[in-house]
Amino acid sequence: MEMLRFCTAGSVDDGKSTLIGRLLLETKAIFEDQLESVERSSRDRGFDYTNLALLTDGLRAEREQGITIDVAYRYFATPRRKFIIADTPGHVQYTRNMVTGASTADLALVLIDARKGVLEQSRRHAVIASLLQVRHLVLCVNKMDLVDYDEAVFESICKDFKTFAAKLDVDDLTFIPISALEGDNVVTHSPKTPWYEGPTLLHHLEHVYIGSDRNLIDPRFPVQLVIRPMSHDHHDYRGYAGVVAGGIFRKGDEVVVLPSGLTTTIEGIDHLGKEVDEAFPPSSVTIRLDDEIDISRGDMICRPNNQAMVTQDIHAQICWFSPNTTLQPDKIYAIKHTTKWARAKVTELLYRLDINTLSRDDSISSLTLNDIGRVKLRTTAPLLVDEYRRNRNTGSFILVDEATMETVAGGMIIGTE
């Protein structure tokens, strides 16, 4: 069964957690005792309705403050698809959490409060989804019940957002009027919006086509582990385990191992203890090769006529995650790219991106929490990369402060020198 990963985005109090609670409730993805607990908590807090946001806001601080702080992952399924939801925070100070949730998403749900329209944070999240190459964007105009299901309000917000989204790199944009609290147009069509003829939210999530989003053109297999059981039965077994990051690998394919450049042929591919004919993203497999080549963690198996770029100089867009430190050009950071660790230095900070106007501020000398900027990096060891827009797996990396072991930034590779 196909799986869709999606994240929620939008400003504070737009109803993201409530919407996810509604989806979980309507798709029977929660147990009766969970629902009873939420109903009881709602009564204790003085609500005269069941506060479905309590289903996803799991941290005590989240429940007490009525806000989402961390990324909460929830799972549900319908007969058509399996779903993984990343419920991400709306507050500006938690933008980095939204980046984390969107980095693996196929689709982003941007919620907008019908009474407030498109806010700064709505735009910021749409920009981040675009930068992270989330191909499908769904704009849910929520709380339609508080504006009497007025079509004019919905159309005005859609027009406003379309004008802004024209500047973004978004392939597929859908608008749906909903009420997460009342359930209107979430799972079933609402009689209160007879003017809306599009799909319900769940119908759209079930049918949106994501088959062409994954890169099946460029074969990429970062080696995570060299497997040599050394037991009596398997004394001659040697395999290379990892997750397929792009393309399709088949038994008998000629492959090249980077960075050595040595070529060989795939002898076989094992998945869950059985041999399979082919492997494609995001399968976890073990590849066996015809020749004994010196391969270690961090190397990459590609095709001879379609190889990753081998480089030590990278142009990248980074989002600064750390509330404690700022980006310091010339400081040495640890960099993790696919399965490889190296060290990297920011040789040049080109500009900071203004999320609201999409203009570039090149007068800055550092990046602080939640800033997104363009940088040049020099690494101590060659990395095997693709542009992020071509492959999200081989085009992304994280920077780690070696003194504190804090992940200080996430990056998307734009190109090489």
For this structure, what is the CATH homologous superfamily of the largest domain?
P-loop containing nucleotide triphosphate hydrolases
Q: And the CATH topology of the largest domain?
A: Rossmann fold
The average pLDDT score comes to 86
> What general form does the structure show?
globular
Q: Architecture of the largest domain, CATH level 2?
A: 3-Layer(aba) Sandwich
How many separate helices?
A: 7
Please tell me about this protein's structure.
- With 417 residues, this protein is α+β, with helices and mostly antiparallel strands.
- The protein has 3 domains: 205 residues, Rossmann fold; 82 residues, Elongation Factor Tu (Ef-tu), domain 3, CATH 2.40.30; 108 residues, Elongation Factor Tu (Ef-tu), domain 3, CATH 2.40.30.10.
- 17% of the residues lie in helices and 35% in strands.
- Strands 7, 8, 9, 11, 12, 13, 15 and 16 form an 8-stranded antiparallel sheet that branches. It has a 6-stranded mixed sheet with strand order 2-3-1-4-5-6, with helices on both faces. Strands 17-21-19-18-22-23 form a 6-stranded antiparallel beta barrel.
- The radius of gyration is 23 Å and the shape is globular.
- The two termini are 41 Å apart.
- About 3% of the residues have low confidence.
